[in-house]
Amino acid sequence: MSAVSGVRSWAGIAPDVIWVLWRREVTRFFRDRSQIFGAVSRTILWLVILGYGIGAALREIEGYSYAQYILPGVITLNVLFASLQCAIALVWDREVGLLRDVLVSPSPSLSVALGKLFGGATISVFQGSIPLLLAPIIGVDLTIGSVLGAWAVMFMMGMFMTALGVVVATRLKTFEGFGSISNGLIQPLYFLSGSIFPLKGIIGGVGFLDVPATLREELRRAGINAFGSGWIVQLPEWLQILVYCNPVSYQLDLLRYVLLDYEQLPLQLDIGLTVALPIAASAIAAREIKHALRTAGPRRRKKAAPGGAA
Predict the structure, then answer these.
(1) What parts of the sequence cross the membrane (predicted)?
(2) Are 285 and 117 contacting, i.e. CB atoms less than 8 angstroms apart?
(3) CB crowding 270-307: b at 16 or more within 10 Å, else e
(4) 15, 109, 123, 158: most buried, per Cβ within 10 A?
């Protein structure tokens, strides 16, 4: 344990610094109602409009209605947006000189990074929980265990995506550039994660959802998820490769298992990557923030010098 200029830290971890930066991110989120509006709007458009619209044609996927199937995907979409919106604030912090203020403070860069990432993950959990409010309406039974499990997965996913966004943000100079890249990240990660279509399975089986819930559960235990006039879906091999290479696929699959007790990828791999990826990405983000803190000072001095001279 060391104490430099009143900042107590251990191995670069200063709880006070983490707490202050976490609180700053969360406070800024709740003061910006547009982000909450965006999360509610995405939930209605994707879960209600798309879910019931396409669900009219696709009665069920592996025994689940289409709205039930895409619920974890809509949660993931909210988490992706929340994480990258939190990361983009780093560009603004650099423009207004906040990074320079952090530079001259005794705050460890690791704690600065963790405060930022924990803040982004917390906001991700909040926005990801909005679709959960509609779960009972679309027929998904939630338990305390499933909600806690979903929050844990959302938090880890939020950590990973915020760290990824921080790495991108530290290398860009303008909001416009980050906006273009974030859209280029969110859309491929989302559409190639199996969020709105299954990797494989039986689609359109008529009648399964009309069977009493207790009997459906017995059929699922026996390996029967759909019957009737369904058809088997198998993605093209090249598309399967892209889905398997997408880290969000495994986090989403674990989220679907927690909420629906249904997974399409190896569960052990889902858990391992969901835990390991945020840790690795956080280490990289901390290194990038440390580098940004070192270069923020010289950039500001160069910008402030007459004629732009250093």
Answers:
(1) 36-58, 70-92, 112-135, 147-169, 189-211
(2) yes
(3) beebbeebbeebbeebbebbbebbeebeeebeeeeeee
(4) 158
Find tokens 């689940």 and name the residue: 64
The pTM is what? Answer: 0.82
Does residue 261 contact residue 229 with C-beta atoms inside 8 Å?
A: no
Cβ 62 vs Cβ 119: under 8 Å: no
Backbone angles phi, psi at 221, to 5 degrees: -65, -25
> How far is it between the farthest Cα atoms of the chain?
78
Q: What is the DSSP string of 201-232?
A: EEE--SSGGGS-HHHHHHHHHTT----SS-EE
CB atoms under 10 Å from CB of 56, counted, come to 9
Per the CB < 8 A criterion, the answer to whether 91 and 173 are in contact is yes
Structure tokens at 7: 């900042």
In this predicted structure, the answer to whether residue 4 has a pLDDT above a threshold of 60 is no
Q: How far is CA 142 from the centre of its chain?
A: 20
86-110 residue pLDDT tens:
888 777 777 666 666 666 667 777 8
